[in-house]
Design brief:
8 strands, 50% helix, binds zinc ion, 5-stranded parallel beta sheet, globular, binds adenosine-5'-diphosphate, alpha/beta, 218 residues
Length: 218
Amino acid sequence: MRLILLGPPGAGKGTQAQRLVEKHGLVQLSTGDMLRHAAAAGTKVGNEAKTLMDAGSLVPDEVVIDIISERLDEADVRAGFVLDGFPRTLKQADALEGLLAQKGLPLDGVILLAVDDEALVDRVAGRYTCARCGEIYHQTKKRPKQEGVCDVCGSTEFKRRDDDNAETMRTRLTAFYKDTAPLVGYYYAKGRLRTVDGMASREDVAAAIEEAMGELKG
Ligand code: ADP
Ligand code: ZN
């Protein structure tokens, strides 16, 4: 399947995308991860993006559209993919539509993770990940079963994103409501949007996504 996970920062897009990779062999296409890799590698694009990301602002459309366009040319995406964090603006959504048509990979649908605003700041401020495998944890809501050891890969190193703090979160939420929220109407009008309750447990959200995928396939 070819899907978009849509939702504000902290809605659980990354967590659910990781699960779709494991369960269905989909490829996770996260522009946030791609930009963080570029920043860590110290490329020109990465360095420029880093400043904007740390402030909680969006990276220019042309930059992320280029990154996604190149990524979509790699052979693995033919198995199906889940876009997580892209598109984030109407311009990106239009560009994506053109790219997917051109590459013969039309979208099956869009799943919106709906979450209360109050929950988002807490989710993001408490979030950290395994430095080796990327498993997502939370200081109070999801700690490793054995303290300090990743459940998935056994690594003892964890990291936090530079932009995961309460202050930057306000800018990211503003960007979401101003630039990304219009995509909800855009995809609804195309008849391809399904909404799931992102406040439920990880397992229940996963089940609701499976149901939505069934509807989008049919
Ligand atoms: P979150 O959804 O939790 O905010 P992401 O990892 O998706 O996290 O994005 C982190 C940052 O990367 C964003 O705040 C933004 O600066 C940049 N970014 C990621 N994807 C895009 C995009 N499609 N368009 C513009 N900026 C993006
Ligand atoms: Zn791990």
